[in-house]
Design brief:
Length: about 170
C-alpha cells in the first residue's frame, strides 16, 4: 500500500461547549494533538477574537471543530449552536479553513480517561474540555493520515462575508 502524504502545518482543535471551549493544537508535522487551554464562554465576539489570536500565533493551516451529533447522527440544538459559532469563527480566521468533524461521545471518553488517570470529578471540569479537544483533533489527524484527505466537512465562506453552513 502506498504511503499517504500528510499536509504539514499546525492544526487547532476546538471542543465548543455551553460553558467552556477546549483548545488543542497539533505539532507542525500533523502527528500529535496536545492541550492548549480551556476558555470560559463569554461574549462570542471576545472568544472568537481570542481563538483567532491562537490560530494566528500558531500559524495554523486549519481549525477543526467538533460537531456534537446525537448517536443517531441527527443534529440537535447543541449542534446548531456549534454550527453558528463555527460559522462566525470561519469568517474571522479566513483564509484559514474551518472544518467540522463528528465528535459523538468525545466528552464522555474524555471523562472516562480522566477518571482512569485518577482525577476527581471536581478537577476534571478544569481540563475535560481540553482533553475532548485533543481527542477531536487527534481523530482528525489520524483520519487524514489514513485517508490522505482532511477529516470532516469545510465551512465555506464566500467573498461577501456571509457564511454557508454545510
Amino acid at each position: 500500500m502506498p504511503e499517504v502524504q500528510v499536509r504539514r502545518g499546525v492544526r487547532i482543535g476546538l471542543d465548543i461547549g455551553t460553558v467552556r471551549i477546549g483548545v488543542a493544537r497539533s505539532d507542525p508535522s500533523g502527528l500529535l494533538a496536545t492541550p492548549v487551554a480551556t476558555l470560559q464562554r463569554s461574549r462570542r465576539e471576545d472568544q472568537v477574537a481570542e481563538i483567532t489570536e491562537i490560530v494566528r500565533e500558531a500559524e495554523a493551516i486549519e481549525v477543526v471543530v467538533g460537531l456534537p451529533r446525537s448517536l443517531s447522527g441527527a443534529e440537535g440544538r447543541a449542534a446548531q449552536e456549534v454550527l453558528a459559532y463555527a460559522s462566525t469563527l470561519a469568517h474571522a480566521v479566513r483564509p484559514v479553513p474551518v472544518r467540522l468533524v463528528d465528535e459523538r461521545l468525545t466528552t464522555v471518553t474524555a471523562h472516562q480517561a480522566l477518571t482512569r488517570s485518577g482525577r476527581s470529578g471536581r478537577t476534571q471540569r478544569q481540563v475535560v474540555d481540553q482533553v475532548a479537544a485533543v481527542l477531536i483533533l487527534q481523530n482528525a489527524l489520524d483520519t487524514e493520515r489514513s485517508t490522505g484527505s482532511p477529516a470532516g466537512e469545510p465551512i465555506e465562506t464566500d467573498r461577501g462575508g456571509e457564511e454557508e453552513i454545510p
